Amino acid sequence: MDSGAGSIRRRGLMLVLSSPSGAGKTSISRALLERNKNLSLSISITTRAKRPGETSGDDYIFVTPTDFNLMVNRRELLEHAKVFGHYYGTPEKAVIDCLNEGQDVLFDIDWQGTQQIADKVGDDLVSVFILPPSTGELEDRLRRRAQDKADVIAERMAKAADEMTHWDAYQYVVVNEDFETSVARVEAILVAERLKRTRQSGLVDFVTRLRQGY
User: Is there a domain that residue 143 lies in?
Assistant: First the structure.
């Protein structure tokens, strides 16, 4: 057995980013994945249609409503919710396997899913809510990405006010006024959470050996 710091192992964590649609959580998520080798994305399943540029298995796993319901009934999902008329969910086994191997998993989900996960996994969860700098900027971002029709944008703006009322259910809050600053702040949260004493198995034995002069 390794008698040095190499004997310290860490359980992975679940890093959840939530925000109103258009506030920047997806862009921040992509940056985090590019810059952190020990962070992988939890791929959600969804019943909605693919958007331009999306790939099944990379962005989402696209399934039929029937298949989705079967997974719910078999209790194979950590969380699931209906958002804007479509169903979304997180397969459980792949996530738990990653945590046991010390791999961190990133979630891009809404507050409903976050609460379901929190009830199941407890201390494995680290939750961050991303806020836009203003309502006007949020609407501008939705229009600039040009993925949705005007009526869908209006629906998302109406829902944003409700979504933002859940900010205080999260452990951390980041206002996405500047993209690079926001990414750096979430990275700082990730580093601090990785260093938490309670996440490091073998630490007690390591300190004991230090005190004994080893």
Answer: yes
